[in-house]
Protein: Phenylacetic acid degradation protein
Amino acid sequence: MVDQAQTRAWAAAASVPDPEVPCVTVEDLGILRWVRVEGNVAVAGVTPTYSGCPAVLAIEFAIEAALREAGFEARIERVMSPPWTTDWVTPEGREKLRAYGIAPPEQATGSKLALFGETTVACPRCGSTHTERLSEFGSTACKAQYRCLSCSEPFDYFKCI
Structure:
């Protein structure tokens, strides 16, 4: 039997949008690792996308607020191991990124080409792989700026980590 408090706490925490990429939630990104309920305290484990991510505190505060709104006392535990990878972005999260106009990350695990930026990035608007990288950094450090040479539209690519 699934504990109703546990289900409610997970749903509250999982619904928090990423402040830098609001089309996806912390669940979609795979940074919400777990939520457990201890009495009336909901404890959420969160793994930052990278150690220097400026949104880490905002995400943790938003998850804490969501848990409090759901009727729990709240605590956040930052989970650093294993480190987050873009492979943890869910299929739903990848589709949400694409629909928002951001090319989702390639699978990074075991791929030296993906990790060092030598990937083929498909345009999220027209699907063409005839694209070029304009800048290693886009609107945030976790994205690179690309341009589609088929439809001429610029777009962000959520880089592999």
